[in-house]
Design goal:
Layout (H helix, E strand, L loop, with lengths): L20 H13 L4 H12 L5 H11 L11 H5 L2
């Protein structure tokens, strides 16, 4: 789930884009399931696409997305070195 929140201190610009109606509805449904909005998801994507998100912020976001992954034992040396 996404819990990223951005604080906007600059003037926001409205933009218009075109997309397939079914695709937009599927995206809105996913955003609702993730308790966010399509607008917020688009802003997050645009922020990443513009390259303004720091590496540490990307790492934290990835760790939040993978928080459900559990590993019950320590990996062997061979497992850690597998590619």
């Amino acid at each position: 789930m996404r819990y990223t929140r951005f604080v906007y201190t600059k003037i926001m610009r409205n933009i218009t884009f075109s997309a397939d109606e079914d695709l937009v509805e599927k995206a809105r449904a996913r955003a609702r399931r993730e308790k966010t909005t399509l607008n917020t998801v688009f802003r997050e994507w645009l922020h990443r696409y513009a390259g303004t998100q720091t590496t540490s912020a990307e790492y934290r976001q990835l760790m939040e997305q993978l928080a459900h992954v559990k590993f019950d034992r320590k990996s062997t040396r061979d497992e850690m070195n597998q590619r």
